[in-house]
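Q: A reviewer asked whether we had any structural model of the full assembly, not just the individual parts. We don't, so I'm hoping you can provide one. Inputs are below.
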Amino acid sequence: MTIPDSDFNRAAELREQINLHNYRYYVLDDPQVPDSEYDRLMRELQALEARYPSLITPESPTQRVGGQPLEGFGEVQHQVPMLSLDNAFTDQEMMEFDRRVRERLVATDVVHYVAEPKLDGLAISLRYENGVLVQAATRGDGSQGEDVTQNVRTIPSVPLRLMGDDWPAILEVRGEIYMPLEGFNQLNRQALAKGEKGFANPRNAAAGSLRQLDSRITAQRPLAMYCYGFGEISDGPLAETQSGSIRRLADWGLRVSPEMRVLEGVEGCLAYYSLIGERRATLDYEIDGVVFKVDSLKQQKQLGFVSRAPRWAIAQKFPAQEEMTRLLAIDIQVGRTGALTPVARLEPVTVAGVTVTNATLHNEDEIKRKDIRIGDTVIIRRAGDVIPQIVRTVPDRRPPDALLFQMPDHCPVCDSDVIRDESEAVARCSGGLFCPAQRREAIKHFASRRALDIEGLGDKLVDQLVTQELIKTPADLYRLALPVLEKLDRMGKRSAENLLKALEKSKQTTLGRFLFALGIREVGETTAHSLANHYGSLDALKLADAEALQLVPDVGPIVAEHVVAFFRQSHNLEVIQSLLDAGIHWPPIEIPDAASQTLTGKVFVITGTLSEPREAIKQRLVLRGAKVTGSVSKKTDYLVAGEEAGSKRTKAEALGITILNEAELNALLEQ
Ligand code: IVH
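A: Here is a predicted structure for the entire assembly that you could use as a starting point for your response.
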């Protein structure tokens, strides 16, 4: 198929624009356009590439999503070995390093060093040929690594094609792949929510993500890269200095550390070390020290190497992030669903500059597995802003009176029975909303953004209201009056008035939000909205039995049981009634009747840009009994294709699936 010039040129233009936005966002951390604009360009390019597959080049920005899983990684021979670094642990050792450097260089005046934080990730070598990324390899043993090209291609801060045109024909760039702390914490929260173990630290998470045989998994992991060095370069060095060479990498769109500095002599190095040490806690990645390199490449050459490390570079390491302290007690925290979480109370200890007094212990099994006893000396690890963890105990220091931990059989807050389901790792307080701790968490949840969204009702305020017994249930919130609110800590007349306004505003909501706000166990946001759409009214839902509930999308037997149990508790029904009496209301939902179920059993996929949000179209289809899925397969009956529909349309065409435009869809819905 010949591609019209206009489309060919448009694709090139889109690739360039997307690459530029990518660069602004991921490399410079300074986006120029909103995400929606970026998405629009991407969809347009995807649509063009779907129409003309020959337009797809390996370096197209659409090709970062990952490909077919590999059987194993290939081997890569490093032409220029990937070295390691000598370490210095004290200022003294740094001064000795500087002295050795000056002695070897005939010049005795001050040496210039270039400094960067030492990232705690994985070393990687990128190979660009004629400006295009052709290979990415791990360090391995330094001379032979693994080919992880497919995975590295999914990392958005790694350019698939270099910017500019003055790069050498062959350019090997070295750097560190790491996982930013924010992404790491989020990944671990998700893993824990799914009952999985999570990663011990960002380094392991980065390594685990990069060594996936299925690059589609890597594509979903928040990895990033900083470049700090070189392998093979076809036309000799890029500049006269290390720092100058790094700046050229930056010009070509590679991401380099904004913390890089050129320093004078060892005094400069020591000052930089303490500066970065102070800033460490504010960085969004883990570092374990600072790297210093002689800046002049000529001097680097004169200095040469010893075995596996250059004489011209050194890593000055930070003191360990692990410390020893004593476990004084194990307290129990009670969450919204009554889950009891053991929390370690520690003798205060400074770990990498921060005083630690608490650490999470997750659950009873974890305490047993690590054989942690009260009174033990324990090793604490703190990594970035991750909650401190107990790594292990020091058995030699166990006092004879160390106590085994026992999960209480009564709730420490309300004294109700504690139950632990055989199938679960979690022990729970059975007190429900009778338990003040659960009540407090339930009210926080009720007011949260995705629930009733009561602005200004923060955690501290809820704590006060519950502790002073001003409220017991979410319904009590709507009985709060100005004179009471005004007198609370850190509340003035203005904020009290604002809170009352926010409470008033929250009364107008949707059934889905209301159901989510009730905090029924296992009923997350999506399930709450499915229940709302399926039943249309609270009264209908209240009457549903477990069997009927399982007909609702995303509702399985466990969720169904929880819903039934919730509406059987008279206490819950009373709270709901009080909330309704307080004036909480929502717009009615159209309840599908049998006659309107014209599309029962039909499977739809929606793609492309349409005149109304996809979610709205989906709802209209679901109300007619249809099922809406995310990807086109043989089971799909209809593809609703808006403008710029891309690969889904191509696939539907190939499978002979009926494709509907918006007008055709509306006609079908009105039948
Ligand atoms: S330079 C010849 N610079 O530290 C110089 N390494 O202990 C080789 N690392 O394998 C490395 N940040 O994974 C250099 N700014 C930085 C670094 C850095 C982290 C890692 C790298 C290397 C290890 C050596």
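A: Points you may want to mention in the reply: Residues 5-27 form the longest helix (23 residues). The first strand starts at residue 75 and ends at 77.
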